[in-house]
């Protein structure tokens, strides 16, 4: 299912300086997830409350840094694959970019995917490293779908369609990024809102705060929380993991946030990103 425009290995790449210069002069399509209402500072009382909560939960300094400190991987993290454009705002018209530039797709060499075990929406144990021979597309979303979730969900559905008969050989794993909604639910909003509840090979993964924080840390997912329930923000990153558990590539999902706090993306952009996801995943299918 390859097409010339979807070649993710041969298209020229922009340098970080070129990307930054292009983004600075452009209309916004926000690649940074922002909670509804903006990124207001977290009041001191809320910070104090969260510090107490972390002590009670026994998570320690690494977790505290994730939630109330600067965005960043803790010092003992085993993986350092952060999206290069996490703080950039790209142009609203991306048609001139190659597919790998459009997705901010980057190859990862000689890196084994950090192992983890979480629970699915059906309350089944889910392990990253297993022997079912499936390619894993690993993503991160808030449980209540108040982030990039609607756009990413649509891209997942279209990517499955593009994969065709190979769709059964690829699993899309969505890891919960909401520390305030970590319980297992049979119908998580992150799946029901974008229409993925019955989608084959799509799982929404959650666990204890300690378990989730370990995954976030290992995969460079940085989270901040505010006072209100909707005030949870995280960076966007997607990983492609081969059947032998190797991190092969990473991409950066993106969308526009409207004044109502809902994230959207042009249908042509959704389709292009989805096709890039399918092409990249399909290249790993054996």
**Which percent range describes the beta-strand content?**
15-25%
Q: Helix coverage percent of residues?
A: 25-40%
> Which spans have pLDDT < 50 for at least 5 consecutive residues?
2-14, 18-91
> How many domain modules?
1
Question: What is the β-strand count?
Answer: 12
The CATH architecture name reads 3-Layer(aba) Sandwich
Output the structural class: alpha+beta
Task: Provide the CATH topology.
Answer: Glutaredoxin
Mean pLDDT: 75
Side by side, the strands of the main sheet go 1-10-9-4-5-6
The total of helices stands at 8
Instruction: Identify the CATH homologous superfamily.
Output: Glutaredoxin
Q: Which CATH class is shown?
A: Alpha Beta
Describe the structure.
The chain is α+β, with helices and mostly antiparallel strands and 286 residues long. The protein has one domain (4-282): Glutaredoxin, CATH 3.40.30. It is built from eight helices and twelve strands. The strands form four sheets. It has a six-stranded mixed β-sheet with strand order 1-10-9-4-5-6, with helices on one face. Strands 2-3 form a two-stranded antiparallel ribbon. Helix 2 (44-57) runs antiparallel to helix 3 and helix 5 (149-163) crosses helix 8. The longest helix has 16 residues, at 267-282. It is globular and about 40 Å long.
């Amino acid at each position: 299912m390859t097409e010339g425009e979807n070649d993710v290995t041969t298209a020229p790449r922009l340098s970080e300086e070129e990307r930054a210069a292009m983004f600075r002069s452009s209309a916004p399509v926000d690649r940074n997830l922002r909670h509804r209402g903006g990124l207001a500072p977290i009041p001191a009382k809320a910070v104090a409350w969260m510090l107490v909560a972390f002590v009670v939960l026994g998570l320690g300094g690494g977790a505290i840094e994730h939630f109330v400190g600067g965005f960043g991987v803790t010092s003992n993290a085993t993986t350092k694959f952060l999206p290069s454009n996490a703080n950039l705002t790209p142009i609203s018209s991306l048609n001139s970019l190659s597919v790998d530039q459009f997705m901010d797709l980057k190859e990862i060499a000689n890196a084994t995917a950090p192992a983890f075990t979480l629970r699915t929406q059906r309350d089944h144990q889910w392990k990253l490293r297993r022997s079912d021979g499936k390619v894993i597309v690993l993503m991160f979303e808030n449980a209540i779908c108040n982030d990039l979730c609607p756009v990413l969900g649509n891209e997942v559905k279209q990517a499955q369609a593009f994969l065709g008969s190979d769709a059964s050989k690829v699993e899309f794993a969505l890891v919960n990024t909401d520390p305030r909604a970590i319980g297992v639910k049979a119908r998580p909003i992150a799946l029901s809102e974008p229409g993925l509840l019955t989608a084959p090979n799509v799982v929404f993964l959650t666990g204890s705060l300690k378990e989730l924080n370990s995954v976030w840390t290992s995969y460079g997912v940085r989270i901040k929380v505010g006072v209100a329930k909707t005030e949870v923000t995280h960076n966007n990153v997607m990983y492609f993991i081969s059947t032998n558990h190797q991190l092969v590539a990473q991409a950066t999902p993106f969308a526009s946030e409207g004044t109502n706090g809902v994230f959207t993306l042009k249908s042509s952009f959704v389709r292009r990103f989805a096709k890039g996801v399918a092409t990249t995943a399909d290249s790993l299918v054996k």
